[in-house]
Design brief:
Strand order of the largest sheet: 2-1-3
Distance between the termini: 40 Å
Shape: globular
Oligomer: single chain
Radius of gyration: 20 Å
Number of strands: 5
Structural class: alpha+beta
Order of helices and strands: HEEEEEHHHHH
Helix content: 55-70%
């Protein structure tokens, strides 16, 4: 009885968090420098370096067996399914996962996300190629705006 009283509010809170449309945990982290201080954030900042922080997926014992948790096992099954239907969809597991998340967005947001998918790599390339302080600042400001829009739209 006591377990039920504790589990019910927890399950309700989890359901409400999902219903509120909380964004999925991001695997993108930005390394930001503010004067003398360096910090890491899931929010973009001006001149940020984009880092990918994909977690490890299990640990091998000395016997050679792979130990994975239920969340990793679920992710591996999803990847196997995505690989199996890739000839039909043309999408790799990450693209299929992103497509599934984006189906919950409005049509306008989905269209904006597709445009950002093309604009972001071009802006990142322009930042790397920028010469001179004023050109670098202008490209970094444009890139920051695009990254903020990507995050605000929940394109992840």
């Amino acid at each position: 009885m006591r377990f039920t009283l504790i589990a019910l509010p927890l399950a309700l809170a989890t359901s409400l968090a999902i219903a509120d449309g909380l964004p999925p945990p991001s695997r993108t982290v930005f390394k930001c420098e503010d004067g003398k201080r360096t910090y890491y954030s899931d929010s973009p900042c001006l001149g940020a370096q984009k880092l990918d922080v994909t977690p490890t997926r299990g640990m091998n014992k000395s016997t050679g067996r792979e130990l994975v948790g239920t969340d990793v096992a679920r992710e591996q099954r999803h990847e196997q399914l995505a690989d199996g239907i890739k000839p039909l969809t043309g999408m790799n597991p990450q693209q299929l996962d992103q497509f599934g998340r984006r189906t919950q967005l409005s049509g306008e947001a989905q269209q904006a996300c597709r445009k950002l998918d093309q604009a972001l790599p071009m802006a990142e390339q322009a930042e790397r190629a920028a010469q001179g302080t004023s050109e670098l600042q202008a490209t970094q400001l444009r890139l920051l705006r695009l990254r903020q829009q990507f995050r605000d739209l929940r394109c992840q």
